[in-house]
Write a structure and sequence with these properties.
216 residues, eight-stranded mixed beta sheet, UDP N-Acetylglucosamine Acyltransferase, domain 1, 12% helix
């Protein structure tokens, strides 16, 4: 009897969250959440300035933790969350920031675990790209260095089947090739070739990685 009551409660909660999401999409025209995405997105924080677009694809999931998943999009920015992406908030906040006119793309089956992405131009994660707990990806310096050296921005490309382990920072202009692994607490300041194991500060190649397409 208690189990049945619990199931009915969960169904009612999902219905309530679906209604909240529909209302949010009416109030924020740039917000597009696929009906097959998790209803838990109703607990997320959405901030979209005029002209910003946020699309969350079918099968995308997150936990029902209020305000721990945050999307901040400035005017004209675009964020695309692909099919079956898991934005996991159990261990920490997932924060995706796209500044004016910037583009963030998260490919299908990707996994962000308490991680943050910040784009002033473009950040792209490929299929089954994993970004570990406490890791951060930036495509800009964030601030001017001084009066003579202004802030610099360059796109970040993270390939398919890449695993970026916990507490790692990826800086502007970096390309990480398919099937690569970046070790814990690394600082990625330059490109990493496909099928490479890299770690350190700055991260350097330390070995090779095989096909990761069938790994968990």
């Amino acid at each position: 009897m208690r189990f049945r009551a619990f199931v009915l409660f969960l169904k009612a909660l999902r219905t309530y969250d679906r209604a909240r999401l529909r209302l949010r999409m009416r109030l924020q025209p740039g917000l597009d959440i696929h009906p097959d995405a998790s209803s838990n997105f109703a607990a997320a924080h959405f901030s979209l300035e005029p002209g910003a677009k946020l699309r969350i694809g079918p099968g995308a999931v997150t936990e029902r933790r209020r305000g721990v998943l945050r999307f901040d999009l400035r005017a004209g920015a675009t964020v695309e969350v692909g099919e079956r992406v898991w934005l996991r908030t159990d261990g920490g906040e997932v924060h995706i920031t796209a500044f004016e006119g910037a583009h963030v793309e998260i490919g299908p089956d990707a996994f962000l675990n308490g991680a943050s992405l910040s784009a002033k131009q473009r950040v792209r994660l490929g299929r089954r790209a994993f970004v570990g707990l406490g890791s951060r990806v930036f495509d800009s310096d964030q601030h001017d260095f001084d009066a003579e050296r202004p802030e610099q921005t360059a796109p970040v490309e993270i390939g398919d089947h890449v695993w970026i382990a916990s507490d790692t920072t990826v800086l502007r202009g970096v390309s990480i090739g398919d099937h690569s692994i970046v070790g814990t607490r690394s600082l990625v300041t330059r490109d990493i070739a496909a099928h490479t194991l890299a770690f350190g500060s700055p991260a350097t190649a330390r070995g090779s990685v095989g096909d990761r397409s069938r790994t968990r």
